[in-house]
Amino acid sequence: MKKLLLSILGAALFVSGSSFAQETNSAPEKTDYKWQMRLRGVGVVPHNRADIGIIGGQIDVSNNFIPELDFTYFFTENLAAELILGTTRHTVGTLGSDLSAIGGPSSANVDLGSVYLLPPTLMFQYHHKFGEVFKPYVGLGVNYTIFYNEKSGVAQDIKYDNKFGWGYQFGFDIDLTEKFFINVDFKKLFLKTDVTVDATNLLPAGTPAGTTLPIPAKVKLDPMLIGFGVGMRF
């Protein structure tokens, strides 16, 4: 009986040792990365329009090219959330404004200086995989646009109201290795703000003291963001 028990124990140890060696020598599985980070170069192209009080005309906001950083967290293989960070500077002016009320021409372009925009955006995404390296995605999300470092141009002062907005995106990643990849991304953001221009300094000579000239405007920026960059999973 003792010999039988020793034989069974020896066989069990042999099987366990063989299984351990097989697991040790097998190829490791791919790491299940939950996070990824991208650095992109992004072209920012506003599709702007505005309702400008008193002087009328249309708004003119410049294009720009900026660096952009984003972080993505994967809840599942397909569902993720991406936080997008970037800031951009734009020059601002009006086209075809009527300045006759303050002694100017009836159609003029007005320099309104420049402003920086910081629109942190949170996108909720669906990712898919075609083959081993091509991974397209779509996203829908919200942003809060902060306007700062305003320069007023020819006016005395200018103020932009911070606002919530929304946007959508689509793009794709192409794997270079398990950890590193390249990225192409398109986003459309719907941004708007209320602007107040203080043009009191442009009033003609002889205007009664204490008279002010606030010019309100409702501005839609709605920029397209076209980006290309590299990314890393971790």
Describe the structure.
This protein is mostly beta strands. It has a single domain, classed as Porin. The chain contains one helix and 15 strands. The strands form two sheets. It has an eight-stranded antiparallel β-barrel with strand order 1-4-5-8-9-11-12-15. Strands 2-14-13-10 form a four-stranded antiparallel beta sheet, with no helix packed on it. A hairpin with a 4-residue loop joins β4 and β5 (79-85). The protein is elongated and about 75 Å long. The two termini are 56 Å apart. 26% of the residues are buried. Residues 1-6 and 8-30 have low confidence and may be disordered.
Give descriptors for this structure.
single chain; 234 residues; Porin
Helices and strands, with pairings:
Layout: H1 2-25, E1 35-45, E2 49-52, E3 58-61, E4 64-74, E5 79-85, E6 88-97, E7 108-118, E8 121-127, E9 134-151, E10 157-160, E11 163-175, E12 180-190, E13 192-198, E14 214-220, E15 224-233
Antiparallel strand pairs: 1-4, 1-15, 2-14, 3-6, 4-5, 5-8, 6-7, 7-9, 8-9, 9-11, 10-13, 11-12, 12-15, 13-14
Pfam family, one: OmpW
Protein name: OmpW family protein
InterPro entries: OMP/PagP_B-barrel, OMPW
Q: What is the molecular shape?
A: elongated
- Put simply, the count of helices is 1
**CATH architecture field:** Beta Barrel
Q: Structural class of the secondary structure composition?
A: mainly beta
Radius of gyration: 29 Å
Instruction: Identify the CATH class.
Output: Mainly Beta
Our estimate of the beta-strand percent is: over 45%
- Taking pLDDT < 50 over at least 5 consecutive residues as the criterion, the unreliable ranges are 1-6, 8-30
Helix/strand order, N-terminal first: HEEEEEEEEEEEEEEE
Say what oligomer this is.
single chain
Organism: Myroides marinus
Keywords: Signal
Signal peptide: 1-21
Protein name: OmpW family protein
